[in-house]
Hints:
17 helices, 14% strand, globular
Amino acid sequence: MQEARFKAALDALGDPARTTVILVAPPDKGALAEAARTSEELRALGLGNQRLAINGVLHASEPTDAVACAIEALGEQALAEMPESLRSLPRDSVPLRAFDTVGLPALRALLGAAVPPASSEAAASSAAAPPLQGLAALADELAAAGRGLIMVMGKGGVGKTTVAAALALGLVQRGKTVHLSTTDPAAHLAGTLDGEVPGLRVDRIDPKVETQRYVEKIMAARSPGLDAQEQALLREDLRSPCTEEVAVFHAFSRIVSEARSAFVVLDTAPAGHSLLLMDATGAYHRRMVREFEAQGGRIVTPLMRLQDAAYTRIILVTLPEVTPVSQAAALQDDLRRAGIDPYAWVLNKSVLAAGTHDPLLAARLAGERRQIERMSTGLARRMFTLAWRVRPPIGVAELSRLVTPEDGR
């Protein structure tokens, strides 16, 4: 019965007369790559009726504004180099607006000719940017600890990989040996670094590799006492989806333990995936504590290490807009419920810190100021900023500049 309902639902989603899937992405190379991956996965499920909406397209109105011109040029380049799987899709373009697209008035004005919402702070948007610490200051603070786990977290598309890679390089600059890894299925880490650095080891937790490793370990441990039929049944049991979750958790636990004697920087998957991993960590913690307490012993679980502020530092990354900041705040609440308190927030792609006189971008600065005030007066214990860069922070040289003291903002 349930299988029939699932098939009927999938048939409805795959029927172009009843369903259209709209993929939304900004004119950004990484975001478009993610959209292409999603498009291909949906096509494999039979959901082929797709459209592509490019959101937040900027056309610079001031040819002398380096920031605005660079944003426009990078957007055009990303669209020109769009993955082949997206090129054939019908495409819509939504221009960047001068206001936050939150609330009914803003949504009505986003696609139509309605009057945009007024901002009482627009007149103040051209004032000098408030003093904000850059990523170099955060790298200094982290290096002072001598060792530990640094987990970079946030929703998809906010720049976690960039921040994680830059902080890892910053620690290497400061004389530390670092293991940089990722749990993100998209695995952008190698492409972001685009090079090797002495003192920096880079890898990823690959679910398929970890699952195979876990299965082989279990089979090697249990097979000697089983006949051929029992071995076949065990291997069949290990094909369960739960096996992958367990395997990834074991890999995560190994990385967490490494931070006892060195620096480990972990670029996590988008928040939803990371919270599932945290759930597994919590379940393991509760089971181990029960078993060891019953035997009168003590154990240090991965969750206990994550809850130890001297061992683990969680860095939340967000963008200077209402929705990403709200999503980061919700993630922080989830972490605190698990007894894990984030160490700092990083505000990525700050146009306010970059400086601009383009009229559209200048009008958006009022909204960015509101988000900075919101973070600094109630959400973030520590806040650091990463200015929007005219040159994309890709490659060792550009990433290193983000954490160099004289250019670390």
